[in-house]
Every structure is written in structure tokens, then in C-alpha cells.
Amino acid sequence: MWGGEPLGRAGLALLFMAAGAGARPRPAALGGQPRSNVVLVVCDSLDGRLTFFPGNQTVDLPFINFMKRYGTVFLNAYTNSPICCPSRAAMWSGLFTHLTESWNNFKGLDPDYVTWMDLMEKHGYHTQKFGKLDYTSGHHSVSNRVEAWTRDVHFLLRQEGRPMVNLTGDRKRVRVMEADWQNTDKAVSWIKEEAVNLSQPFVLYLGLNLPHPYPSPYAGENFGSSTFLTSPYWLEQVTYEAIKIPKWSSLSEMHPVDYYSSYTKNCTGKFTREEVRNIRAFYYAMCAETDAMLGEIISALEGTGLLRKTVVMFTADHGELAMEHRQFYKMSMYEGSSHVPLLVMGPGVKEQQEIPNVVSLVDIYPTMLDIARIPVPQNLSGFSLIPLLCEKAESEVSLRGPRPSWVLSEFHGCNVNSSVYMLRTGKWKYITYSDGCSVLPQLFDLTADPEELTNVAIKFPVIVHSLDKTLRSIVNYPKVSSSVQEYNKQQFISWKQSLGQNYSSVIANLRWHQDWLKEQKRYENAIDKWL
């Protein structure tokens, strides 16, 4: 830390000067030199559109800008599942969600699953992890999993507190998300004290909770996370005039799955423009605090002379809707939720490069192996980013042929009453549900309609047919949806049996307790009918 505060303007200027004076990575071929170190910083819930124009006009993110100046930004990077654990399971395994079977926040990879980091360690890398991992099974609240299991039950219950803002401290309050700062400090100390003395290459992972919203204890005993919390220090990094107030469809015009999501997220009530603007501003301020932690890592690498030997990557598990489409949180295929940041800088990586190709988090696994010069397994869903980053011929790197022109994302968890599949290719985003018949699909032309307000599926049946055919060639999605339904039912039955006499009181007091307790018998009957 520079004087106990995050790097200010002066610190940033020094960093740019040092980078300009030859301390920055020289574009060397990743193959010819000693193997590079790798640092991966993964935050939680950062909307990828904030890393390039016009989204970057709303908030000052100096270290993301530093990475763009001396590296590459991906303009179309996506999560493979817009929720914490399934997304991370995809990133650590290199496999799509229907292959990891990480159906919800409770079900991830087995603890002994061989990740890219395990392989790098086996091939001579020193490995170090700090902060949030969340890719193995068994985490998150009971509410979270029961809500996911019961999404096919015919009832509608609010599962979250109403989204709200909370201003804390004064203009001197920099460290709002204390746990993240502690993990950042640990990573910085490790770089300065350990990494600098290593004789072997290293890979360092830092997982941050920000800018995920904070818990909302005001919502009662079992509460979700619907509070956007920051201090005046960070709020001053936000340009209020640039904040766009999203357009909303009327409740009656919403897609049925969107309506379910909006209702369960407690967003169907009335919100003033001021409330929506504040939620978005506070969210952007939380992104600015996240950026400062990334800055601490880059500065530590620079200060120890390691920056020019290290590939630095920054991404997130998913985005945040921040009241777009009348929702907050993620669990949606709309851009705010599914589009993630992805920036890379380091030896051999082109500077000031913007890559339009669609990529996704499963690509991180083969990319890590490529950097470490480890043969890439043939069964991965992802493709190495190295050919795009370094302008190498694809054939030099991949034995699997060219990277596909699409990415896949899928969602099977809570706050959505159907399995959802998204195929993103060219200007199109195709979203289909369940078995492909029982719920209307959506098609958006992101060039003409970047805010995804007009579903043109009925207007372009030939495109829908073609994209659906491509999707079915990747995943037999009606079959997957059916097996998720079966899994949900079996899990719920065994959970119910494990509670015995306590079942009624336990289920009544989950996050939906405020609605449930009004008509307890009715909701229990709905579950019995489903079972």
C-alpha cells in the first residue's frame, strides 16, 4: 500500500512511467522464453461492459485501463453459467456446466477434481491461492439449494430482500470490503516476500467477493444479499450524469421466466428513477473499489520487477444486472449478468488490443496450460486464448482445429423456474428454455438492440431454427433439463426425509419466510402435489 491508501493518481502515474520506461512486458513469444509466471484475479459480479466504451464512461477504473494500455481486452467474454459456483466449476475444469453437472450453488466439482492449477503444480509451477474459490460442492445456504430444487413447484415467493443502497463512513473510508482487502494484502505480501525469491515459475490466484452485493439482515432471519454498500470515497469515482436508467417492459409484457426472476428477486414493486440510479451508482462504486485491489497486485509485481515476467489476467464469475430488466443479481442471460470482463497483459501479449471474438470462462483452463507449455487435454470445452492474444496461427497451438464462432452459457439454479441455455454468435444471442417447446425462446440482435428490449424470435424463424440446431449439436438440452428436474426432486425428497418432524418449521423459515408464513398450508400442499 502507498501510505495505507490504494494507489492514488501519483502512484498510478509512477506505474505508467515505469511501464513506459521498459519495465513492462516485452512482447516475446510465449514459447521461446522461460515459462511466464501467471497471476489470475477473479472478482465476483463485475459487468464486463464496464471495461470498454461506452460502459467505461460511468466509473473510473484506472487499473483496468492500465491493463488495456499494456495488454488486451476481450469485448465479448461470457460466463458459462451466471451464478457463483457453477461458473467457477466451469472455469476450474474447462468444461461446460452440463458436463460438470454443477446445477446450482450447492453442487460444484468434487474436491479431488484435477484443475489447471493442479496440473501446473505437477509440471513445476509453485502455486498459491488467496480469497474466494467456491468451485467445489457443499457451500452456500440451505435456502439457496431448496429454492433451486423447488423451482418447478407452482408457487411464487419472494426469496430476496428488496435491493437497496447503504452509504458507510466518510471520504477517508477506503477499505469498505475488509475481507477482500485482507486477502489482497496477503497476496501483495506473498509477491514481495515469497514470489520474488522463487527459482521456479509461479501461478497466483486471488478471489475477491466484490462487487457482489452485501447481505441484507434487515430482511429477517434468513436473508439474501441485496445491499449495495460503499463509502463517499468510492462514490466520487462515479460519473452520475453518465448513468443510464434502464428501460423496463411492463410486468404484463415480460417474458414469463423474467417475471418469475423479477418477482423472486423482490423487484416487481415500485422503484423511483432515483432509487434505480443510486443502486447503479453504488454498484459502480463497488467496482471502483475492486479495481483498486487489482491495482495493488499490479503495483506489487511492478515494484518487485516481476511484472515483465508475469501474465496477469483479470475476470469475474458473472456480471450484475443492477436493475436492468427489472432485476438485480445475476441468474440471467441478459448482457449485464452474462457478459464478464476479461483482460490479459504480459510477455508476448499484444498491447492496446481489443478482441471482438466471443470467448468464455472455460477458455481459461487450456490458456493456463498453454502458458505453462503443458499438453492440453482433448476433452475440454474451452479453447486456448493464446492464438488471439499473441496473433499466433491457430494450428501452432491447437490440435483440435479452430475455435468455434459461438459460446454457450446455461443456468439451472434458483430464481429462474426453468433450465436456460444461451448461444452467442455473431450479432445474435439465442436463449431457449427447458425442453425447447414449453417456453417461448428469445432472440436478440445485439448490434441493433444492445439493451435486449426486443425479442425478434418470431420475426426470424430461420435464424432461430439454425441456432437451435447448432445448440442441439453441442448439448442435448431437453435431456439435460429433464435430468436436472429429476435431480431437483430427488435432492428435495432426501432433504425433507432428513428433517423428519422439523420439516414444516425449517422450510417455513428459509429466505422466503415473509411470504411463506402468510399461507403456509397452501405452499406445503403445492410441494406435495409436485412430489
From TrEMBL:
| SUPFAM superfamilies hit by this protein | Alkaline phosphatase-like (SSF53649)
Q: Which domain of life is it from?
A: Eukaryota
Q: Does the keyword Disulfide bond apply?
A: no
Q: Which UniProt keyword terms apply here?
A: Calcium, Glycoprotein, Hydrolase, Lysosome, Metal-binding, Secreted, Signal
Which cofactors are reported in the record for this sequence? Answer: Ca(2+)
> Which Enzyme Commission number(s) are listed?
3.1.6.1, 3.1.6.18
List cellular component terms (GO): extracellular region; lysosome
Q: What is the lineage of its organism?
A: Eukaryota, Metazoa, Chordata, Craniata, Vertebrata
Please give the family membership noted in the entry: Belongs to the sulfatase family.
State any single GO MF term.
glucuronate-2-sulfatase activity
Q: What does this protein do?
A: Catalyzes the hydrolysis of pseudosubstrates such as p-nitrocatechol sulfate and p-nitrophenyl sulfate. Catalyzes the hydrolysis of the 2-sulfate groups of the 2-O-sulfo-D-glucuronate residues of chondroitin sulfate, heparin and heparitin sulfate. Acts selectively on 2-sulfoglucuronate and lacks activity against 2-sulfoiduronate.
* Signal peptide (residue range): 1-23
Note whether DNA damage occurs among the keywords. no
Kindly report, in one word, the top-level EC class recorded for this enzyme. hydrolase
Q: Which Pfam families match?
A: Sulfatase
From the Swiss-Prot or TrEMBL record, give the protein name: Arylsulfatase K
Gene3D superfamilies tied to this protein: Alkaline Phosphatase, subunit A
Sulfatase N-terminal domain residues = 36-372
Q: What is its main location?
A: other
- Give me the reactions it catalyses: an aryl sulfate + H2O = a phenol + sulfate + H(+); Hydrolysis of the 2-sulfate groups of the 2-O-sulfo-D-glucuronate residues of chondroitin sulfate, heparin and heparitin sulfate
Q: Where in the cell is it found?
A: Lysosome; Secreted
